[in-house]
Sequence to fold (441 residues):
Amino acid sequence: MTQSSTEPLTEFKKITVVGTGYVGLVTGTCLADVGHTVTCIDIDEDKIERLKKGIIPIYEPGLEQLVKHNYQAGRLIFSTKLVDSLPEAEAVVIAVGTPSADDGRADLKYVYAVAEEIGKGLDHYAVVITKSTVPVGTGEEVEKHIKKHYSGEFDYASCPEFLREGSAVDDFYAPDRIVIGVRNDRASDVMLDIFKPIKGEKVVTTVESAEMIKYASNAFLATKISFINEIAQICERTGANIDEVSYGIGLDNRIGPKFLKAGIGWGGSCFPKDVKALGQIAGDTGYEFQLLKGVLEVNSNQRVHFIDKVKAHFNTGIKGKTISVLGLAFKNNTDDIRESAAIDIVQQLVEAGATVKVFDYQAADNARNELPEEVIFCEDPYESAKDADVLLVVTEWKEFKELDWTKIKDILKEPVVFDGRNLLKPSKMEELGFTYSSIGR
Ligand code: UGA
Fold:
């Protein structure tokens, strides 16, 4: 990805990005890749040292190469010292975590701590940009935290992130839109300059609207999936086929074909956290967001329905059975297991007394810390399938489609597959002689 394919820049900026988690590292690296000089800050010294050596803490296609390339080119700098980078910075991006507090609210302590540090170190005009997902009204609070220590000029911008894990680099270069929430033209000019090399509509809004667009987008997408999962439930009970139904409704431009894939429900670091937080934001204003409660409930029920089907298969109970589980990540192309339906399912199977043999292309290392000791981690899908009573597909890795399913049929104790991601073709699986069950078809 080079600059030649994009509009020429009038001016490259010096940008500091605070937080090298998912959002911060991808954003910082890609901003450097388009030509800006970016300093990525993290308090974790080990992580920063590893990044300098090109060791990436997450699995994200294309990212490692971009980090190495831009680090060597001198446009991407890694440091633990925010204060040292501030004298030069024309923009400072806050991209630290906003985990769920116990009541579902976004915990903003890291965001505010960074805002205070920025206030202490800033000595000239800069735009302070929040990329972390924060509730409506946070912008104003961030400004207050900065002003506690700094009385000079600065502007605030909200620039929510819409990257998906697993395709984050591509999403950065081809976004559906870039949302820029600002209070004045000076700030929007800086923001438009920063994002000038990126194609895609730039939507300039108020800070508050930008903050809301982020939550509303994630909540809507989660709602879309929960909706199709409920339709899938009805399909199962009526004989309709969810693939045909999704295709049929997705052709309506007003609905669109994406995020209509039925399965065991959504997970990850964003949808669960953001849907809950939006419910809280609404509640704080005295408004009850009724729809979202259903969206969450449907999502957790999808896992329960799936496990119930597996349990129903064994007349004599699941205890003592060997179950092969393909997939641990919350979706394909990532090693992220946060709020992964797959992890939850493995835990429930172990609790029910099954011997569980798992395999994932990237997420096994992360899963080892989460799963009970007795779970057996396998080197490949075939080792996982060998001598199992039943096989479950629970992450939508495309590679699972390409497996030698004839071989799997031969090494399974019984040729029984439960596909929680509707990844495999029912007619093909039945032709091969499997007893095959999926979601809503
Ligand atoms: C999501 C949003 O898609 C991004 O736009 C947003 O920037 C990000 O959250 C965030 O807030 O940081 P991500 O969590 O990476 O991105 O993953 P998605 O691709 O949205 O998938 C979320 C979950 O929904 C996964 O568990 C996936 O398996 C599931 N899913 C997705 C379905 O079950 N069906 C579908 O049709 C699509």
User: Anything to note?
Assistant: The chain is about 40% helix and 15% strand. The domain at 2-205 is CATH 3.40.50.720 (Rossmann fold).
